Amino acid sequence: MLVRLVYASRATEGMDDALVGSILEQSRKNNPEHGITGILCVHTKGKVFLQALEGGRTAVNRLYWNIVADPRHGEVTLLGYDEIEERRFANWRMGKVDLEKVSLSSILRYSDNADLDPYSLSGRGALSLLEELVDSAAIVSRESG
Predict the structure, then answer these.
(1) What is the pTM of this model?
(2) What domains lie within the chain, and their CATH numbers?
(3) Which of 106, 111, 117, 140 is the 20 to 30 A CA-CA neighbour of 123?
(4) Distance, CA of 22 to CA of 98 (rounded, Å)
(5) Could you tell me whether strands 95-98 and 37-43 are parallel, antiparallel, or unpaired per DSSP bridges?
(6) Euclidean distance between CA atoms 12 and 42, whole angstroms
C-alpha cells in the first residue's frame, strides 16, 4: 500500500545551508533503503519546511514520527495523508526547492500572501503547490534514485 504524506514544520534554530544540507544528506542516504521518495521545500526567511513523502505506509509513518521527534523540527503539522496508486515524486530520493527562488505568482496561487505559510494551506493546496514546483522545474537540487 503506497501513501503520500504532506507536512509542514519550522526549524527550531536558525535555518542555513548546513542544516538543510544535513537533512538532505540524511534523506538521500536513508530513503532508498526504505523505498521513500519525496520533495522538500525550504523557506529560509520563515524557517519553514514543506515536505511530501511517498512510499509504503509503514515506512512513511515511521519516518514521519522520526521527524516529529527530531529536535531540528518544531511545530510539525500533518497537512495531508492519502493512499495513492502511484508516486508523483518517484524520481527523487529527495528533491529540494528553495522557495526564495520561486516565482511569487506560484506561491500566491495557493497562499494569501507572497510569504508562504504552509500552515495556512489545505493538504490539497500544499500538494498542488509542490506539483507545480516540480512541473515548472523549480527544483534547485535534485538527486535521482
Answers:
(1) 0.85
(2) 2-135 (3.30.70.100)
(3) 140
(4) 15
(5) parallel
(6) 14
Q: SS in 3 state form for 25-46?
A: HHHHHHHHHHCCEEEEEEECCC
Q: Which pLDDT score is estimated for 143?
A: 47
Q: What is the mean pLDDT of residues 40-60?
A: 89
Which of 30-34, 35-39, 48-52, 114-118 comes out lowest in average pLDDT?
114-118
99: nearest Cα among 79, 121, 77, 76? 121
Q: Which of 52, 49, 117 is nearest to 81 (CA)?
A: 52
Distance CA 64, CA 25 (A): 17
Q: What is the DSSP letter of 114?
A: S
Residues whose CB is less than 8 angstroms from the CB of residue 46 and which lie 6 or more positions away in sequence, other chains included: 10, 115, 116, 117
Question: Which residue has cell 534547485?
Answer: 140
